[in-house]
């Protein structure tokens, strides 16, 4: 195990010193995947496990906090362990970080709150709640062994540069009816609990990362269709994503201040 971590650390050191560091020579670090058997015993292990369960069963475990009919794992595949599938491995170590959207330095809780606000079209739990702490515990577990304040590993990102030409939405509609409709349905609403919605009232809102064409195109290119990931050409992924994003979805109303209530704690 020690040796494995050393490889991870070495690889990261090579990657984090920038794009000119010859990082192409670096070996792909093995992923510390999630396995219940590896969790530490006691309450911390339980918290990590609860965080994992929230990722995959968000609508059930946190139904008062989310309006979209999806779980975190709809976009963070395999509960956030899949490279180019919304991996959260190493995310813990990238905070605090500067956030353009809110124009301030944010902690991991703030970033998690954003996914509740936008991707889940809901409201964030209190930062000291059992749920928020569990999600932090889970992301920290996935990130174990990574250096602090690490830079993002470019290999993990699914955002890709978009083609210079406009997308062909009509062609995207054809791709959709050939390769997506069986799971995500003609009305884009998916099948509750099985296939997540791509548009409409139950989908993520207009403020979500996935509502950006570059992000959805990258996600679709690497991960969809679920039964044949990687089979779409870059242009097909671009066109079908533009078709998906041409439909209506909930609008994010960002006027009001968001201030989750603290959870009371006992001090002695
Ligand atoms: C609709 C898709 C979607 C859903 C659902 C979703 N996310 Fe995300 N999430 C994203 C995208 C896309 C990004 C990257 C955003 C960007 O680069 O702007 C992201 C980023 C993040 C990050 C920051 C990762 C980093 O490396 O900085 C965390 C943490 C996170 N999400 C957690 C969650 C949690 C927890 C949930 C469920 C409560 C959730 N997400 C639900 C799409 C989603
Ligand atoms: C065999 C079923 C299946 C097919 C076909 C399929 N998907 Fe998915 N899709 C899923 C599942 C299941 C998820 C949730 C993530 C996971 O479990 O891998 C998902 C997640 C998504 C997401 C992120 C979550 C969301 O709701 O926004 C997008 C975007 C998406 N699919 C787009 C597409 C597109 C575009 C196509 C056609 C090119 C497609 N999918 C084909 C099953 C499918």
Describe this structure in words.
This protein has 10 helices and 2 strands. The protein has helices at 2-16, 43-56, 58-61, 77-80, 108-119, 130-142, 169-179, 181-184, 213-223, 234-245, and strands at 97-99, 104-106. It has a two-stranded antiparallel ribbon with strand order 1-2. Strand 1 and strand 2 form a beta hairpin. Helix 2 (43-56) packs across helix 6 (130-142), helix 7 crosses helix 10 (234-245) and helix 9 crosses helix 10. The chain starts with a helix and ends in a 23-residue tail after the last helix. 38% of the residues are buried. Residues 1-27 have low confidence and may be disordered. The structure holds heme C (2 copies). Residues 70, 74-75, 77, 175, 179-180, 182-184, 195-198, 210, 216, 219-220, 224-227, 232, 240, 244 line the site of one heme C (HEC).
Helix/strand layout:
Blueprint: H1 2-16, H2 43-56, H3 58-61, H4 77-80, E1 97-99, E2 104-106, H5 108-119, H6 130-142, H7 169-179, H8 181-184, H9 213-223, H10 234-245
Antiparallel strand pairs: 1-2
Helix pairs in contact: 2-6, 7-10, 9-10
Residues 58, 70, 72, 74-76, 86, 88, 91, 94, 111-112, 115-116, 119-120, 135, 139, 204, 208-210, 215 line the site of one heme C.
């Amino acid at each position: 195990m020690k040796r494995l971590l050393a490889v991870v650390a070495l690889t990261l050191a090579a990657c984090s010193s920038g794009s000119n560091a010859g990082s192409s020579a670096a070996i792909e670090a093995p992923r510390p995947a999630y396995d219940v058997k590896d969790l530490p015993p006691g309450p911390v292990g339980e918290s990590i496990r609860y965080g994992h369960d929230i990722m995959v069963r968000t609508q059930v475990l946190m139904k008062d906090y989310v309006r979209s009919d999806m779980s975190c794992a709809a976009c963070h595949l395999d509960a956030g362990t899949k490279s180019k599938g919304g991996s959260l491995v190493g995310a813990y170590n990238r905070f605090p970080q500067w956030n353009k959207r809110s124009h301030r330095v944010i902690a991991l809780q703030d970033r998690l709150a954003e996914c509740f606000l936008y991707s889940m079209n809901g409201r964030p739990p209190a930062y000291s709640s059992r749920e928020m702490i569990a999600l932090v515990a889970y992301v920290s577990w996935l990130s174990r062994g990574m250096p602090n304040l690490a830079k993002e590993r470019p290999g993990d990102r699914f955002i890709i540069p978009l083609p210079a030409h406009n997308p062909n939405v009509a062609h995207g509609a054809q791709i959709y009816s050939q390769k997506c409709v069986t799971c995500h349905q003609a009305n884009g609403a998916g099948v509750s609990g099985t296939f997540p919605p791509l548009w409409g009232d139950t989908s993520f809102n207009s403020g979500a990362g996935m509502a950006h064409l570059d992000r959805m195109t990258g996600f679709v290119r690497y991960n969809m269709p679920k039964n044949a990931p990687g089979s779409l050409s870059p242009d097909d992924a671009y066109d079908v994503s533009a078709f998906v994003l041409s439909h209506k979805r909930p609008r994010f109303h960002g006027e009001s201040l968001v201030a989750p209530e603290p959870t009371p704690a006992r001090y002695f």
